[in-house]
Amino acid sequence: MARLIDCYRPDLFAGCRVLVTGGTSGIGEAVARAFRDLGAAVTATGATDGECARAEADPGNAGVIFARLDVRDPAAVADQIASLPRLDILVCAAGVIRRDAEHDPAVFADVLAINLTGTMQVCAAARPKLAAARGCVVTVASMLSFFGAPRAPGYSASKGGVAQLTKSLAAAWAGEGVRVNAVAPGWIATPLTQVLQDDPERSRPILSRTPMGRWGTPEEVAAAAVFLASPAACFVTGAVLAVDGGYLTL
Asked: Exposed/middle/buried for 124, CB within 10 Å: 0-12, 13-18, 19+?
């Protein structure tokens, strides 16, 4: 099967500068590669030096610039945005899940600080450059933006917040020419879901509810993010686009 990215012109984002937070693995890494393959200059961030070093060492990431960024740190976020000569597209993919531990209010708060407040922090810092470029934002919501999660209340709350934040910023920034949309991945085969993939008792009900009957791939989510950032979506803002194999239909 042809690569999903081959659906688009290889120079679609030529001359564009893209920042992907949480871009060292999983969905964020696939997004960084997709924009790079379509001609953009891409900076991807990771939470630690180790994450960035691993990503840099992967030949599949050639051409992507990696930088450490803790999205909870306002000064670090401001410095990262300031280091970019311009910014056309921001993808907020930084996120964590800490199953079971999130019932501890301190862990709950930290998950929200990364997934939700971190997203807002990066968006707010990037707003002037995005407005200057009449650019766009793609946030990463989740199926758990729509459902509760008994083992991950912080993650579910944060992703519900990301969906509503996306709609709110879309309304607030439309007058500046900045579009803000979200992808809402279903059950995607990433390191974040590896524990579920490896457990037949937990993966079986997920797959049985997914009409397409399989785990999605990070590249399939990246293709949706590319669409939302492309001229094809020029009249789309405030959307939360499910990339879920039909999971939400049941």
From this structure: middle
Question: Phi first, then psi: what are they for 160, rounded to 5°?
Answer: -60, -40
The pair phi, psi for residue 2, each rounded to 5°, is -65, 150
**Whole-model pTM above 0.90?**
yes
> How many whole angstroms separate alpha carbon 192 and alpha carbon 188?
9
Helix (H) or strand (E) holding 219: helix 218-229
155 is catalytic: yes
What pLDDT is attached to residue 140? 98
Q: Check if the beta carbon of residue 225 is closer than 8 Å to that of residue 188.
A: no
Residue 60 has, within 13 A of its CA and on its CB side, a CA count of 13
Name the active-site residue from 8, 13, 155, 173.
Answer: 155
| Three-state secondary-structure class, residue 102 | helix
Cα–chain center distance at 76: 19
pLDDT, tens only, 223-244: 999 999 999 999 999 999 999 9
Question: Is residue 140 a contact partner of residue 190, using CB atoms and an 8 Å limit?
Answer: no
Task: Indicate the length of the chain as a whole number.
Answer: 250
